[in-house]
Design brief:
By secondary structure, this protein is an alpha/beta fold. The chain is built from nine helices and nine strands. The longest helix has 22 residues. It is globular and about 65 Å long. The N and C termini lie far apart (90 Å). It binds pantoate. The site of pantoate has 10 residues, from strand 2 and helix 6.
């Protein structure tokens, strides 16, 4: 496994690398969710490349940039065990060299939800992802559905800038009790972790109600709020939205996505789940007029 810390080292590694190149962009603190992405990138590409970079531009000033976990030796060992070919783990100056003056702004799917609660966050994500995809010469890039809004923003970015890369999404990996894996789960005390389960429970409640035939979105959202409030979590948003544009919906007509963000003390968690489209209603049998039998 080659560990490249500069763009020059990365270019040398890439010059001999067979294509297709599958890239998994991460901020490190790798968990089973990342490893699922890495396994898929490994299986589907001739070269598997992981980037590890805690990107300062996607953190707001009051957020956890300085305390974000950075267990680099452990991350490198996990990449090695997963048969990764190249890890790109640059310092900030390699990603944002002196004179760097570009910000990529994706409108549309970045506007609401995380976009409102973390203004500027997706500009940082879109800028670093565009740069990472170019630097790594990615043919395919792998993103988890856990950050569902980020996934839609990246899809929009790649489509709008005609970047020559396929975006592959992978399902959220969860602990057996339903908690979505996240590098930020390490911040949770045992008690908070128990409380946090209410978020995935709320999303499952909405999915279950939709499955049972409920089509009124405000009813689904109220049911989610009740579950989360009962557990004492503070809600940033808990909504059922269009799965691509992430715009709010009033009635379930097709597939949708439930999205939530909650706070427990200083920890903020996000999660999401697909909401199944309503089942087509089976037409009730029409009463045929009795057949006349002529005698
Ligand atoms: O999902 C993440 O870990 C980050 O937002 C990403 C995509 C690596 C960009 O910094």
């Amino acid at each position: 496994m080659i560990v490249a810390r500069s763009r020059a080292e990365l270019n040398t590694a890439l010059d001999g690398a067979p294509r297709p190149i599958g890239v998994v962009p991460t901020m490190g603190a790798l968990h089973e969710g990342h490893l699922a992405l890495i396994r898929r990138a490994r299986a589907e590409n001739a070269t598997a490349l992981v980037t590890i970079f805690v990107n300062p531009t996607q953190f707001l000033p009051h957020e956890d940039f300085s305390r974000y976990p950075r267990p680099i030796e452990r991350d490198l060992a996990l990449c090695e065990q997963s048969a990764v070919d190249i890890v790109f783990t640059p310092p900030v100056e390699e990603m944002y060299p002196p004179g760097f003056a570009t910000t990529v702004v994706v409108q549309g799917p970045s506007r609401r939800w995380e976009g409102e609660h973390r203004p500027g966050h997706f500009n940082g994500v879109a800028t670093v992802v565009a740069r990472l995809l170019n630097l790594t010469r990615a043919d395919r890039a792998y993103f988890g559905e856990k950050d569902y809004q980020q996934l839609q923003v990246v899809r929009r970015l790649v489509a709008d800038l005609a970047l020559p890369v396929d975006i592959v999404s992978c399902e959220t990996v969860r602990d057996p009790d339903g908690l979505a894996l996240s590098s930020r789960n390490v911040y949770l005390s045992e008690e908070q972790r128990e409380q946090a389960l209410a978020l995935s429970r709320a999303l499952r409640t909405a999915a279950g109600l939709a499955e049972a035939g409920e089509r009124d979105i405000p009813t689904l959202e109220a049911a989610m709020r009740e579950v989360v409030e009962r557990a004492g979590l503070e809600i940033d948003y808990l909504v059922v939205v269009d799965p691509e544009t992430l715009e709010p919906l009033q009635r379930l007509e097709g597939a949708a996505r439930a999205l939530g963000a909650v706070r427990l003390g200083t920890v903020r968690l996000i999660d999401n789940l697909p909401i199944p489209p309503p089942r087509p209603t089976v037409p009730s049998p029409t009463l045929e007029s009795p057949t006349r039998v002529s005698s």
